[in-house]
């Protein structure tokens, strides 16, 4: 019997992934990664909290499968949380969920799988993956509202080759119905809508609490250098943002953050749009680079047609067919042709 390790967060999606694989004839082993301590940080009830580990164990018991929890708090701190704080301090906008899939959830999960005698790993991501003609093919989920392929382009190729994504052809209501029919304790559990380690989406407070010595006040200024206000930390700003950019007058948007002098440059809606950006850490999921793609420059971005100009040093320039607002250095850009993810990179400059 084929053996697969399923990353079980305690949520309904990964629970249904385990259920579906068991029905496909796999010997399923549930694995939960202990990534963050919410009791210590004063709140609970979120992804990776103690009760989520308990829910995962309850589902595993319901399915009659083995379940193990592995402590990966130090790895999560080093690969996701610390870079998240450092990136905001540097005036950039991090992509923690992309980085987590790259360095915490997928790569290390395969190490655990090997220890448990499994050749494959599965998650509850809404996306589709297959090996076609020797090439890894990653596609968006059937349910566009839940599609999470944006987060997976950066995963190691060997991980994608041995990855199972059972939910790629389902909608969220269908997944919940399966969980309810199976009697899972978490069938009606709400989705986690924020970062799993930041309470209430308060990113600025999280960064400030962990690096108060690295934050300083600075000017809010126009493109001509006119100072129209002040702020108490660049970690509160990201390109495209309107809130907190100066009182009175016309609407202003963050254009860029200049960490070297703690300055936030703001401008009009027209000034906030960019016709191109450069990306680094370029990666292709195709045998050859693709020059015409649809680029998603953040998770909820609907995508824009773009021409990819490949540069030296693992870099590329994306030329947008229409100017885009909120092109934020540090964010991931995923490249699509139709529903297929063909590559991606991290935005360096706009």
CATH-defined architecture of the largest domain: 3-Layer(aba) Sandwich
Rounded average pLDDT: 91
Oligomer class: single chain
State Rg: 21 Å
Amino-to-carboxy terminus distance: 51 Å
**Tally of strands:** 17
The number of distinct helices, counting runs of at least 4 residues, comes to: 8
Write the CATH homologous superfamily of the largest domain.
HUPs
Report low-confidence residues grouped into runs of 5 or more. Answer: 39-46
Structural class by secondary-structure content? alpha/beta
Largest sheet: 6 strands, antiparallel, barrel
CATH domain class of the largest domain: Alpha Beta
Overall morphology? globular
Strand order of the largest sheet: 12-15-14-13-16-17
Whole-number count of domains: 3
Task: Describe this entry's structure for a reader.
The chain is α/β, with parallel strands linked by helices. It folds into three domains: 3-200, Rossmann fold, CATH 3.40.50; 216-267, SH3 type barrels (Roll); 273-349, Elongation Factor Tu (Ef-tu), domain 3 (Beta Barrel). The chain is built from eight helices and 17 strands. It has helices at residues 12-23, 50-63, 73-89, 96-105, 107-115, 157-161, 172-181, 203-210; strands at residues 3-7, 27-34, 66-71, 120-122, 127-132, 135-140, 163-164, 218-221, 227-231, 253-258, 263-267, 273-284, 292-296, 304-311, 315-325, 332-337, 340-349. The strands form three sheets. A six-stranded antiparallel β-barrel has the order 12-15-14-13-16-17. It has a five-stranded parallel sheet with strand order 3-2-1-4-7, with helices on both faces. A four-stranded mixed sheet has the order 9-8-11-10, with no helix packed on it. The radius of gyration is 21 Å and the shape is globular. The chain starts with a strand and ends with a strand. The relative contact order is 0.13.
């Amino acid at each position: 019997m084929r053996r697969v390790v399923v990353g079980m967060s305690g949520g309904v999606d990964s629970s249904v992934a385990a259920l579906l694989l068991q029905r496909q004839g796999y010997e399923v082993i549930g694995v939960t990664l202990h990534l963050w301590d919410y009791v210590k940080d004063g709140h609970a009830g979120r992804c990776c909290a103690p009760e989520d580990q308990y829910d995962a164990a309850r589902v595993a018991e319901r399915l009659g499968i083995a379940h193990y929890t592995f402590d990966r708090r130090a790895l999560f701190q080093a690969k996701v949380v610390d870079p998240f704080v450092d990136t905001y301090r540097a005036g950039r906008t991090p992509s923690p969920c992309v980085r987590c899939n790259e360095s915490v959830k997928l790569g290390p999960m395969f190490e655990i799988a090997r220890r448990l005698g499994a050749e494959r790993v599965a998650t509850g991501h809404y996306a589709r993956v297959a090996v076609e003609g020797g090439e890894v093919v990653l596609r968006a989920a059937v349910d566009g509202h839940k599609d999470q392929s944006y987060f997976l382009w950066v995963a190691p190729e060997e991980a994608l080759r041995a990855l199972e994504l059972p939910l790629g052809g389902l909608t969220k209501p269908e997944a919940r119905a399966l969980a309810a029919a199976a009697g899972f304790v978490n069938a009606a559990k709400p989705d986690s809508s924020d970062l799993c380690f930041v309470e209430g989406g308060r990113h600025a407070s999280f960064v400030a609490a962990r690096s108060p010595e690295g934050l300083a006040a600075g000017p809010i200024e126009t493109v001509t250098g006119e100072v129209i206000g002040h702020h108490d930390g660049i970690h509160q700003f990201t390109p495209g943002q309107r809130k907190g950019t100066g009182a009175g007058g016309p609407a202003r948007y963050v254009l860029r953050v200049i960490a070297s002098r703690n300055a936030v440059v703001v401008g009009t809606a027209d000034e906030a749009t960019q016709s191109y950006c450069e990306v680094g850490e370029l990666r292709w999921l195709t045998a050859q680079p693709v020059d015409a793609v649809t680029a998603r420059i953040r998770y909820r971005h609907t995508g824009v047609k773009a021409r990819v100009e490949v540069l030296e040093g693992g870099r590329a320039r994306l030329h947008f067919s229409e100017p885009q607002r909120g092109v934020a250095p540090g964010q991931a850009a995923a490249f699509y042709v139709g529903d297929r993810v063909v590559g991606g990179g991290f935005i360096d400059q706009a």
